[in-house]
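[audit] Reproducing an earlier prediction to check determinism. Same input, same settings, fresh worker. If the tokens differ from the archived copy the diff job will pick it up downstream; this log only records the rerun itself.
[audit] input (107 residues):
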Amino acid sequence: SNTDIKTIPWIDTSNVVDMNGMFDNCANLRTIPLLDTSNVWDIANMFRGCDNLVSVPDLETSKVYASSFVFQNCYNLEFINPYNFPNYDWSQTQSPNLRLKYPELFI
């Protein structure tokens, strides 16, 4: 089950266009490797329910148009670069520990 996944090895995602729910409910996942997301258009629910996810690397999201609930229920998420998710509604993220790299974007 997804809840047993603790780490993700490097995987070739260069031809992937849909990552909707890719890591959905991977509750024990703490970090992910840098993924090639240059062709991805859907990242909705990608990390939803990743309770122990602490950080997300910089991802290329220029082609993304679907990003709802990407970080929903990521309660331990501490660090993320919001420039990588320009169309994301940050109010959907319930992480009291979240520190955005560029908080002035949200003032």
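[audit] rerun output stored. Observation attached for the diff report: DSSP finds no helices and two strands in the chain.
[audit] end
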